Amino acid sequence: MVSFIGNVIDEAMREISARSQKRIYQNDFLAWKSDILGKEYYEKMEEIGQMIAHPDNGKTRTAIKSANGTGKSFILSDIGTWWVTAFEPDESLAIFSANGRDQIERVIFTYLKNNYGYMKSHNHEPVGWINESLEWKFTKPDGSGNEALAFGKRPADTDIVSSFQGTRKRRTFVGFDEMGGLPEDLFTAAEAVTTGGDSRFVGIGNPDRRATPFHRLFTNKRLADEWNLYTISAYDLPTMTGEIVYQDPVLQERMLTSGMTTRSWIEHKERAWRSEESDGGLKPNGLFKAKVLGEFPEEDDSTFFPESDIIRAVERDIEPSDYIVCGVDLGFAGEDESVFMVNRGGHCRIFDGDVAFHNDEGTVIGRTGGVWTKSLPMETARRIHAIAMSIGADEVRVDGSGAGIGVYDNLVEMREFSDRTYSIYAIRGGTASSDINQWNKLRDEQHDQLRKTLHTGMLDLDPNDAVLRDELLIITYDFTDRGAIKITPKKELKNEFGGSPDRLDALIYATCDLSFLGGPQAGDIVTANENDYIEDGHFFYAETAAIGW
Fold first, then answer.
1. Count of domains observed in the chain
2. In whole angstroms, what is the distance from residue 122 CA to residue 60 CA?
C-alpha cells in the first residue's frame, strides 16, 4: 500500500512538474527552442523570434524582408512547432502558405518533420503525427475523431478568401513563406482567421518586387504602424559578423555550413552586382539590394521578367514530351560557360548526364556533362553531338554569334558528324527582329518571347537551378527612341552579374519560336542534303535526310 501511494505521489509530482515546465515554455519561446529543439539563433533572429512569440507592443502581425540564406523559413517552422506543442492542442492551430504547394512541402513541412523527429528522439514526445498531405493531426482525447494542429495550403486564386473560413481556433498562427509573391486576397484570408488576441500573422520573403502587398507593408505608413517590420541583411549573419552562436565549435561550424549565406558568396556579389558610378564608387543594383541587403529595388530598376512568373515556372510540373529541342549557349573564354539546355515540351533542364565524346577516328577523348568551359570549336561540336545523339534530340539550336558559327559549320560540314539524326540551327541574336518597331534586335524579340511564355505558365524550370533564376531576375530593359524594347546589353550584364547569362541564353534558344521561318514544321518529314543550308538573315539551318522538322 505504501509503495502504491508513493507511486501515485511520484506520478502526480511529475505531472505537476510537466505542467509547470509547459507554462514556462509558453511564456519563453527562446528557452523552448533551446531546451526542446536544441537550437540557438544569431542575435537578429533571436530578436525577431522573441517579438513574434511575445510581442511587447501589442502588434500581432510581423513581416520580415530578408536577404538570401538567412534562415527565415527555418524560424517560421520553429515558431509553428512551438505553437502547436507548447500549448493545448485543442486550442492551437498553425496554417502555412507560400507561392506554391512545392514550397510548402519542400521547405516548411520538411522543417516541421525535422523538428518532430528531433523531439521524438530526445524524449519530448510531440502530440499527433504529420502525414504526406501537408497536415499535422492529433486524436482528440474525447474520442470524437482527429483534428488538425497544422496544415499547409496554397488555394487557387479564384477561391482564396473563402478557403480559410472555419479553420480557426482560439490561438491561430498563420505563417507565409515567400510572402513577396503572394496576392492581396491571401492576406485578407489570413486576417479573417487571426482575429483573436492570442493569434499571430507572420510573413517572410525576399524583397524582389515593388508594387506588391508585401512591398506596401514597408512603404505605407498606416500599414507599417500595425506591423512589426524587420529587415535581415546578409551582413547581419554570423558568417559576416563572427558572432559565436554555439559554444560548441562543432555545432557552430555546422550552423555556418548548413545553407547560411557565406562570406565568399557575399564578396562575389559585391563585385558582380554593383556598377561603377561617375565618382569611382560602386552602386548596388536591384539584385544586390534584394538578395544581399534585404531591401526593395529602387523604382527605376526595370526588371524584365516578373518574379511571380519565374516562381510559377519553378513550381510547375510538366510531363516531359517525346519531342526534344536543345539550346546551346557557347562560351570560349574566361568564366563564360557553354550550357546545353534540354526542352521536352516545356520541361526545361540542363543536361545532367555524362557521355563520352570522340575524335574523327572514333577514339574517346573525353566525357561531357551539360556545362563546360574553355573548349575550342571542334571539341565543342563533339560535345554537342555526343549529348544530342545520346538523348535522341530532334532539334539542336546553337549560338551562331562569333566563334559559335565555327561550331555550327563543324556540325554541318564535317564528315564525322554525318550520322546525326537531329536538325541543326545557328541563332544569331544580333540580327534584325521581325518587327523593328517592337523589338530593337532579334535578341530583344527572343527575350520577349520567353517573357510571354513564362507568363502563360507553359514552362517548367528546375527548382534547384538558382543560377538560372538569378539570371532571369537580373535582366533589365529600356526603350529605343522609336519605342522598341531593348534588353540590357550583354557587356553590361557581365559587369553586373560577373559573367554572361549563359543558362538564360540556352533556355531562350531551346524555347524560342521558329515558326516564322515558314516551310516544314515539327513532325513533317523532309529530305535534304546534309551540306545544304539556307541563310535568311535570322538563322542558318541545315537538315539531314528524313528528319522531323
1. 2
2. 32
187: containing domain: 24-205
Q: Give burial (CB, 10 Å; 0-12/13-18/19+) of 166.
A: exposed
pLDDT digits over 108-163, tens only? 999 999 999 999 999 998 999 999 999 999 998 888 889 999 999 887 755 665 66
The sign of the dihedral angle between the CA atoms of 233, 238, 243, 248 is positive
For residue 218 the three cell numbers come to 514597408
Task: Please indicate, yes or no, whether residues 193 and 315 belong to a single structural domain of this protein.
Answer: no
Among 185, 205, 225, give the residue marking a domain's end.
Answer: 205
| Residue 365 per-residue DSSP state | E
In a domain, 8, yes or no: no
Answer yes or no: do 36 and 150 share one domain: yes
Say which CATH number the domain at 368 has. 3.30.420.240
Residue 5, C-beta contacts closer than 8 angstroms, at least 6 positions apart: none
Chain CA centroid to CA 248, Å: 32
- Which of 186, 205, 224 terminates a domain? The answer is 205
Q: Would residue 252 count as lying in a domain?
A: no
**CA angle, corner 290, sides to 101 and 45, nearest 5?**
75
Beta pairing, strands 135-139 & 274-276? unpaired
Does residue 210 lie within any of the structural domains? no
* This model's pTM is above 0.70: no
Q: How many CB atoms sit inside 10 A of residue 338's CB?
A: 25
CA 29 – CA 535 distance, rounded (Å): 69
CATH number of the domain bearing residue 31: 3.40.50.300
38-59 burial, b for 16+ CB within 10 Å, e for fewer? ebbbbebbbebbebbbeeeeee
Helix residue ranges per DSSP H, 157-297: 160-163, 184-193, 213-219, 221-224, 238-241, 249-256, 263-272, 286-288
Q: What is the pLDDT of residues 32-74, one digit of tens each?
A: 999 999 999 999 999 999 999 999 998 999 999 999 889 888 8
